[in-house]
Amino acid sequence: MIQEPGYKICSVEDIPQILEVYKQSYREHYTYLWTDNGENYMNSSFTVEKITSEMNEAQSRFYLIYDQESPAGILKINNNKAVDGKKDSDALEIERLYFLKEAAGKGLGKSALKMVLDLAAVENKKTIWLKAMKCADAVKFYEKQDFGVTAEMDLSYPFIKDEFKRMVVMQRPVS
Q1: What is the C-alpha separation between 7 and 73, in angstroms, rounded?
Q2: What's the rounded Cα separation, in Å, for the pair 34 and 41?
């Protein structure tokens, strides 16, 4: 029987743990995308200052996801954010959902999406959306969870390999 993960809404005191999970997960899953193994991206995106700034955005929430007693992943959601970046009181964005490699195959991703769907339903949202690397296994996972691709775009980060610049926007109704 799969045990449901635990969720902790994060505060600034949790930033060291968030950064640890982000960096380990990113190194385990995404370094192949970059000519510099993702160092530039991680050094600019996974900092105390950056996470503090994101936490200070009123519509953003971070969750540590626990498998048993151990942190296994991070979820960041943005409330009232539309696909086009404008305000949309009917939409919720999953900006980041990262898991450590050791958490794979335990059903934690499905459970996290169910938690987000339940939260969205309670908050009367109509749509959940996210962006994913087109080349990543995550796209297939999200498709199995009833997300559909609605748009594609290219990333313009320095050091990203040309063959991996493509991202997809995916969304699904909350119903």
Answers
A1: 10
A2: 9
Q: Tell me the residue ranges of DSSP E strands in the chain.
A: 6-9, 60-67, 70-81, 87-99, 127-133, 148-154, 166-173
The pLDDT-based confidence of 135 (bands split at 50, 70, 90) is: confident
Per the structure block, which two tokens stand in for 113?
């999406």
97 near 45, Cβ under 8 Å? no
**Is residue 171 within 8 Å of 125, Cβ to Cβ?**
no
> Is residue 71 within 8 Å of 64, Cβ to Cβ?
yes
User: What is the reported pLDDT for 80?
Assistant: 81
Q: Residues 27, 33, 35, 41: what is their CA dihedral angle, to the nearest 10 degrees?
A: -60
Per residue in 50-68, pLDDT (tens digit) is: 999 999 998 999 999 999 8
What pLDDT is attached to residue 86? 57
